[in-house]
Structure prediction request, 260 residues.
Amino acid sequence: MEILRVEHINKSFEDTSVLKDINFSLNKSEVLSIIGSSGSGKTTLLRCINFLEKPDSGIIRVNGDIIFDGENDEYLKEENIRRNRLHFGLVFQSFNLFPQYTALENVMLAKQLQAKKRPDYKENKKQILADIETHAKGLLDQMGLSDRMENYPHQLSGGQQQRVAIARALALEPDILCFDEPTSALDPELTGEILKVMKELADCKMTMIIVTHEMNFARDVSDKVIFMDDGIVCEEGTPDEVFLNPKQERTRQFLKNYQS
Prediction:
């Protein structure tokens, strides 16, 4: 079942065209990896999907419903952006944890803020907060951090911080979990623990979009791979199609240079 469709997305910064007529779709439970050289538009595409950047034109659909249409300013109202952003969880390159909160508090925070808008919040505050805490503890346990819940970010390794960030993204139960180069800020020896967590999420059929330079991981875990170059989707296919039998010379050149 199709969960995401991106149609004719364009994005420019001043006179520089960064995304040029981007089109792709993603089915529920699939993993899509987006690869390409630095500056090819991968992160900008992810930010547009998550409403951290506004596309200049195009349409984004989730579960068949339009959540962005470049021809209709109604989708840019703050209340609509906040609501539509909930379809996505985003894990950043550099963790972006709040340093003044513990790991547990970081994971709970967004859900607590969301809960305050519930009509029954005042009446059932104690139970609601207890449920949020139980859920957050379960996510941290899933990340292998049951003994680090009360630690602050500065007391955690980079890999542990990134696992807290993944738990935080999962806390709001998004339809699609997005990763923007999740291992790029980590020492090489810590990269494996994050890739292991992501592989486990893929095995659990979590729908994911992953911008990554980890070619072996993208090949092994993905259902689909997109290769971007100079703001366009240069090639799209299964991992075997893209990595083992690329159709485009630019894809072959990229993979040869990257693997050399």
